[in-house]
Amino acid sequence: MFFFQAEDGIRDAQESRGLGDVYKRQSLASFDALTYKQNLAPLVREVNPSLVLFGATFSGKSLAPRVATALEAGLTSNCTAIELQDDGSLLQVRPAFTGNFLAYVKTKSSPAMASVRYRALEAALKDSSRKGQIVKRPAVTTPTTIKVLGKGAPKEASIAAANVVVCAGRGLKKPEDVALVKKLADDGMSVTFISSELEEMLSICSRLFIMRDRKMVGELSGSQLSEDNIMKTIAGGERNGEGTQ
Question: Based on CB atoms within 10 Å of each CB, which residue in 20, 126, 233, 238 is the most buried?
Fold first, then answer.
């Protein structure tokens, strides 16, 4: 069950991945969690699926609990896996206590509802035997107290969207190791470099996040990158008597 504006991606998924029927509400140009809930909750009741998934994005995290509340169903948020059990039930896996262990949740209510982390689940295998349809429905609009005042500047690429993240630090023992890291960065890979050596950081990094007492106290890039600016940022604020890192 999907909520899309463009149909090209939907048709491609139906033809190559065996995606089933897709229900599309028309005339919902901008995201409004309350309006989307008014449209999605009745549709879930009508279709009666066993599982409803939301992306654990800003919009998904806003919409999912509203739909779950309207359906009086449980919701497992921020899942990293969905496992089908032998008895046909669904086990939802999510990190708990800042990721120190995994919680396994089995929802008693129906349908099971979960929000899933970006790229946590693998894409379905190609299945041309299943043919779905795009079922168009008119959108239900309701008065809302949300007013769009304008759009902010586009955000920079997030490290969460990277296919590969390279982390470097004390493991770099030779100049050839540093050259390899630089080449990976030049090839478009995200590289996270951790060090307390100023000369080393300035020779490798294009952007620095400066930590002090386990907190980020500054960000430097471009012409800001200098030993003087780094030391000023580290020394900012009160010292705790134990030095800074």
Answer: 233
What does the pLDDT read at residue 202? Answer: 85
What is the full DSSP assignment across the chain?
A: ----S-SHHHHHHHHHH----EEEEES--S--HHHHHHHHHHHHHHH--SEEEEESSHHHHHHHHHHHHHHT---EEEESEEEE-TTS-EEEEEEETTTTEEEEEE--SSSEEEEE-TT-SPPPPP-TT----EEEEEPP----S-------PPPPPPGGG-S-EEEESTT--SHHHHHHHHHHHHTT-EEEE--S-HHHHHHH-SEEEEEETTEEEEEEEGGG-SHHHHHHHHH-S---SS---
Q: Is residue 146 domain-resident? A: no
- Do 43 and 83 belong together in one domain? yes
Helical axes 33-47 vs 58-71, angle rounded to 10°: 50
Residue 121 and residue 196 in one domain: no
pLDDT digits (tens, 9 = 90+) for 70-85: 999 999 999 999 988 8
pLDDT at residue 231 is higher than 60:
yes
- pTM here is 0.60
The answer to whether 116 touches 56, Cβ cutoff 8 Å, is yes
pLDDT of residue 6: 52
Which residue range(s) make up the domain with 131?
8-138
Most confident range, picked from 48-57, 125-134, 176-185 = 48-57
Residue 24 within any structural domain of the chain: yes
